[in-house]
Amino acid sequence: MNLEIVTIGDELLLGFTIDTNAAHLARELAALGVRIVRRTTCGDDATSIQSAVRDALDRTGAVITTGGLGPTADDMTKPAIAELFGQPMVLDPQILTNLQERWRKRFNHELPVSNHQQAMVPQGATILTNNFGSAPGIWLEDERGRWVAMLPGVPREMRGMLADTIMPRLRDRVPAGGAVIRSRTLRTANIAESALADRLGELARGIDGLSLAYLPGSDGVDLRLTSWDRDARATSAALDSAAALVREKVAPFVYGEGDDDLAALMLAECAARNATLAVAESCTGGMLGMRLTAVPGSSRTVLGGTIAYANEVKTRELGVPAAVIAEHGAVSEAVARAMATGVRLRFGSTIGLGITGIAGPDGGTPEKPVGTVWVAVDIDGDVRAVRATLPGDRHEIRWRAAQLVLDRLRKAFSRDMDATGWTSRS
Prior knowledge:
Elements: E1 2-8, H1 10-13, H2 20-30, E2 35-42, H3 46-59, E3 62-66, H4 77-84, E4 89-91, H5 93-107, E5 120-122, E6 126-128, E7 137-141, E8 147-151, H6 155-173, E9 180-188, H7 193-200, E10 211-217, E11 220-230, H8 232-250, E12 254-257, H9 262-272, E13 277-281, H10 287-293, E14 302-307, H11 311-318, H12 322-328, H13 333-347, E15 351-357, E16 372-379, E17 382-389, H14 394-413
Helix pairs in contact: 2-6, 3-4, 9-14
């Protein structure tokens, strides 16, 4: 089945709201074998909505819209699409009663007049129950079998209704045992997209009919394999085989799959080793600690950390000798090592991580340009460090520096002591 998505809202066009709904719809529907062939965003006016939906219906005959189902004047989705189908808007007494009861129960007063609009529906439409908000969804289908499903724009409501009402309907329309669309993502860190392509060689063009996409981001480059035309069993086998081939070529750089987070993975590894962790941060200003403590259960492993932004704090709190800073500079291998060791000793942890660098936008020099970072890993006194020049703006450099030290911890655990850039043991 081919399908199109139309997301509606001026706030999407203006960039004030990020369209997460279309991405979620595409991911969920692909597993059913529903192929999203086009995604369109339009504003909150009837002409734009009708144009986008009309064109989508002409191409595929199946459309899901999100947004424009609320009580205000700019919520035009239902009347615009009703007119497109040649149906008048009528009051649904049951929806109105439900809305009135909801307002009395939740807000202890009568339903505002403006909300009565939410009880107006296209004649002949099927009402889709919304268990997560006030605006019901609408399913409108014509005699030719073309249909539009209208869902709210609020992400929590849209996702709930998709699972409760749309997915069951579509399962009945997609042939059993047919082709499914599924992906497998391998997550890599600290290797460039071009370097990955070189290592993959001919595999970079695709594997056994599966496409291979490179998805660079602040965490690294994700490698996404996608199967389009196989049934569920053949898809799983093909993805398993292709992922194994990719791992064989780039194994030292792969840290996880799917939505794996490197901070969570490293905390799990620490827990398995009964290891504790402390962090010393300069340029990242607490970002590493934030990432670690965002993981539930991190308190069993993370003992604490120090944001040593000023040089005197590095000396006073972490024991970094002032003479070392004077000789080598705050952004140096010697200081990163001293920070990792200092924080490990101060907190009595098994592991100490240190980060120092120049996040910009100023402060760089020809020898140490913006993006220069040194990170160090101290595991029970075995200290190793690495320098990198990271791309991006200030936020991206700081995030990548935190990812770099987490990945170096991973390499230390795997005893990958030949990792590019590792300095020798102190």
